[in-house]
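Below is one record:
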Amino acid sequence: MNDLARQAITLALENNWKRALEVNQEILLSDPQNTAALNRIARAHLQLGEWKEAERISLEILTIDPLNSIADKCLQKCIALRASHELGGEVAQTIKTARCHNFLEVPGKTKIIALINLGEASTLARLDTGEYVQMLPRQHRVAITSLENEYIGRMPDDIAARLIFMVRQGYEYVTAVKSVVPSEVKIYIAEVKRSTDAGIDSFPFRK
């Protein structure tokens, strides 16, 4: 990865979308078919509310690489925004609000958790606030991945142990990105199904 690509990823993590757009366009001057830069450009346009341009670029990427899953994901977002526009919806909102936008805090049932052992910066740069993610309990750890199975990070050990126990009791959860910056990703987790046998809080209140 060259310096411009690293700079573009950092700018995206800082939500500096206009500058990120400029840096990625600079990359294209020497490499017009750089699909990674094109994907970042499409994402920047989407975050700036310029979904038509994001759609055009996503289609361009798919002509270069028909199996590019990142471009396909962006295109689906654009299609959703186009439908919203045609139905009179609010186009200025990004796809974030079509996801988990009500981080309701319920004592014992919800928690906001800062992940540890974060994944690649390029993966974090593609995350949106409110984006639903997957919680994958293992024997001793709980990993968090995107819906495309890209590793984001993992739960701290004490919380992981608690969640592994609760899942084994029949509890179910939904997880979404609460916030993301270059050095920290926070996940919102909410209990959506409680075991009738256990009947205990997922996240007991501690004084």
Notes: DSSP finds seven helices and six strands in the chain.
